[in-house]
Amino acid sequence: MLRLGVNIDHVATIRNARGGAHPDPVRAARQAAESGADGITAHLREDRRHITDSDIDRLMAEIDLPLNLEMAATPEMLEIALRHKPHAVCLVPEKREERTTEGGLDIAAGHNHIAPYVRQLAEAGIRVSLFIEADPVQIAVAEAMGASVVELHTGAYCEAAIAGDAKAMALHLKRLQLAATDGHARGLEVHAGHGLTYDTVRPVAAIPELAELNIGHFLIGEAIFRGLREAVTTMRGLIAEARA
Ligand code: PXP
Questions:
Q1: Domain span including residue 117
Q2: What value does the mean pLDDT of the chain take?
Q3: Which of 29, 89, 145, 234 has the smallest number of CB atoms closer than 10 Å to its CB?
């Protein structure tokens, strides 16, 4: 089965545009859970632009689904993760000026910085995932570092879809397929996400080695028109169809 993690960051983005408590990302997490999500993903950014510390407290206390905490490899975030002990941590690159996580973490270049984070999180019993590009070097380093999961960045594939570039889409999809096969063969659990929509999810979901997709921005946007329950249910249906 291919799990669906629903990323609720952008419910918090809308809330924070006005301050106050509405719309509540924890309520969104509850609705996602009721609509067939297998997990909740939230990115606690250094600048707290969307998810806040109190959202993480409440997600841990009020939501039964596993929480996948996305975070940068910094001492502050490590302390928060070790205090909460979420089901999973996904280490991501983070730049203040970026609008979203633009690329994968370069764990080959950043090995000496990232490896101690992987070790300390894993020792605390937290499933550690590394958000990387679909690149054989990065996958080999993830294995050597002792991560249990790699999440493949699907951004380049989705950008090619937006540009209507079928050739680039096919190329990026092939890279994702090869990376999923490679990661799986090395004993890593392989996830994927970033930028996926109803139009782009099927070929990715059809990759048999993938165990989890994490999807956020499109679902929250679609929820404006169709409600979050229907958006999540439809995405779940497309994933199931692709796997059938
Ligand atoms: N996976 C990771 C590691 C991410 O950083 C993000 C974006 O926060 C996602 C998945 C979800 O991407 P999107 O919001 O574009 O669906």
A1: 3-243
A2: 96
A3: 234
